[in-house]
Amino acid sequence: MMEPTPLGSALRTLRKSRKLTLAELAARAGTGESHLSRVETGKRADISRDLIARLEHVLDAPGELARAARRLPAERESSLSAHAGALGAQYERLTEPALRRLDAVPVGEALFARTPNSQRGSQVDTRVLCRFYGCDPRPARARPQSPEPVLFSAPHPMTHVPTRVDINPGSGVEAGIRLRFLEAHAAVHLDARVYECTLPRMGMAEEMRFIDITCAVLAPRTLLDRAMRIAASSVGDESDTPDVWGISGVSLVEDVATSLGISAWVAVRRLAEEGLLEDQALYESMPGSVA
Fold it and tell me: What pTM does this model have?
């Protein structure tokens, strides 16, 4: 018996969630029932971009089947092909890591949004995140021979959820910020049901993705926008686009990081991902520009 492909599994899950039979979906999408059956069961690994678009329209699931099939809509593929430099020699060093980080943003935003009471003031409540996913994070005793953060104890044999999360944030003024990051990172692991963490070793692709998601959890767009406006006004710039030429830009990043309870590197990454310190800020800060 053939194993379903990611596309077949996604198609079957979406069809059943919409309470449609294969025959009903095939009729609405203008294709054959047997054709869709072969896709769902893995006997056919790929389908045309046009059929993917029709199925997504019927299932009201824009982009989900294309993602599962690792296919791009025609207009996006055409748009990307226009940027030959980004797809050439610089792809592995710059483009792929940037795409990986951007792909993690909606995952982090969704995790924050579906966690009740996950916001406290201007910050994400990382302790609430951990508790929502079934654990109570506790500071671990620092071990001189192993200063690495210890995120997980052994999973419970029945639920497979860790009975506790031990975190070693270290010491010093950065300990509080590091603790918040590690608590959010633990929630990301628990949400994905991956109970082993390799921090601070970051070479594994899966761990890098969890770090990317953690950054988005700690600085979701709604809180980032608010922190940006407050920080911009505090450095004497009433717009959302501060003077990137002056020291005010550095002060703004520091103020955003402080407001959100995150480190400066997370603030810089999220501001850049959302385009809040880039083209428009540069344009509007040029002498003689018209906003």
Answer: 0.71
